[in-house]
């Protein structure tokens, strides 16, 4: 993996995620370069560098707006949204995190106001309250199948959009990026933690889709990114209306995985994170609650077409977990694709080379999701 901060996997992975979502290496080099020479610099310096990067893009975008260059302004605002979102990822809950997240939402809204993002806002009623999201629709006269995209433990719908863009729409599939329990607005603005039974929000989302006239909700796939792979698999196992499942990083037993990472001190730099996402008070309570996030007995219930995409050198979820998941899955139509280091994309969610993985996922789904209207059933004589 490209390590902007040599030997610092946590900060380097955040850089790669920002690049994956459309960030500029030139911007990152200018604003984060000084931090490489000051390893003692803390979270305040980290947040300030990303904020400066974002504010610069916003100032340039404002100039584009004054000149009438709305498409250019929209792209800059979207990049600023990514930078603000990256600033808050490693910051514990508090004023700095809240300000960075609010700034990310504002910049994304500015991009939408410029008409640069072909999105439709949606609000889904659910047992956890309203779930906000964006529909990315193909340019088609008729309703198309839908893929619901779930982020992992720290992605937002805005970052998801910046990552997947129009990859599915180009192939005739409507895409829904959405904040759900433990992610985005729900955890940051309303304090709604994650939940192990993710079929509950998935059912609410499909109910909403079935009530719409601009999508074909007879065919709804789920795609989970990173630990969202758990959400996708769990949804497919217990929500029969899911027609296909993609785990972009194959999950097996999140509780056991995080227990190991904590015991080996891998998770200590973000010790606040697990209690925050799980709605618990201490790290030990969080680890105990995470024992419910296991797919060991769930994968056999997944019978829909299944794709698991993983990296050979994944340092977040071991590739062995993806192989166990693949073997246990009950799907007759299933594929495991492991990106190897020699060809690129070997890191977690292929953050070192994401385009081939996204193309693979979109192409695989397009072959399993009917994109043409089905003929009407003839009436009985």
Automatic annotation (TrEMBL):
Main EC class the enzyme belongs to: hydrolase
Keyword terms, alphabetized: Hydrolase
Any GO molecular function: hydrolase activity
EC number per UniProt: 3.4.-.-
Family stated for the protein in its record: Belongs to the AB hydrolase superfamily.
Name of the protein in question: Alpha/beta hydrolase family protein
UniProt organism field: Nonomuraea harbinensis
């Amino acid at each position: 993996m490209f390590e902007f901060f040599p030997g610092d996997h946590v900060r380097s992975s955040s850089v790669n995620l920002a690049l994956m979502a459309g960030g500029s290496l030139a911007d990152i080099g200018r604003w984060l370069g000084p931090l490489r020479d000051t390893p003692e610099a803390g979270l305040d310096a980290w947040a300030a560098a990303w904020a400066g990067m974002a504010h610069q893009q916003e100032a340039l975008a404002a100039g584009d707006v004054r000149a009438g260059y709305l498409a250019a302004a929209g792209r800059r605002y979207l990049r600023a949204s990514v930078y603000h979102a990256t600033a808050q990822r490693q910051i514990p809950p508090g004023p700095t995190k809240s300000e960075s997240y609010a700034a990310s939402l504002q910049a994304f809204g500015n991009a939408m106001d410029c008409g640069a993002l072909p999105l439709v806002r949606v609000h889904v009623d659910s047992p956890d309250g309203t779930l906000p999201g964006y529909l990315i629709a193909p340019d088609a006269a008729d309703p198309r199948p839908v893929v619901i995209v779930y982020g992992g433990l720290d992605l937002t719908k805005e970052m998801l959009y910046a990552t997947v863009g129009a990859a599915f729409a180009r192939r005739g599939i409507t895409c829904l990026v959405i904040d759900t329990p433990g992610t985005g607005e729900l955890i940051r603005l309303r304090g709604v933690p994650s939940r192990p039974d993710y079929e509950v929000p998935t059912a609410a989302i499909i109910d909403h889709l079935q009530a719409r006239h601009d999508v074909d909700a007879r065919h709804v796939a789920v795609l989970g990114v990173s630990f969202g792979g758990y959400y996708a698999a769990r949804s497919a196992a217990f929500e029969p209306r899911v027609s296909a499942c993609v785990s972009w990083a194959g999950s097996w037993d999140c509780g056991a995985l995080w227990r190991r990472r904590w015991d080996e001190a891998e998770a200590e730099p973000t010790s606040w994170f697990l209690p925050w996402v799980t709605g618990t008070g201490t790290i030990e309570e969080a680890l105990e609650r995470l024992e419910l996030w296991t797919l060991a007995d769930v994968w056999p219930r997944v019978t829909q077409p299944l794709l698991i995409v993983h990296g050979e050198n994944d340092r977040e979820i071991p590739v062995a977990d993806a192989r166990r998941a693949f073997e246990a899955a009950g799907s007759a139509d299933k594929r495991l694709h492991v990106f190897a280091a020699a060809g690129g994309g070997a890191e977690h969610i292929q953050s070192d080379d994401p385009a081939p993985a996204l193309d693979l996922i979109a192409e695989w789904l397009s072959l399993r999701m009917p994109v043409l209207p089905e003929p009407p059933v003839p009436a009985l004589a």
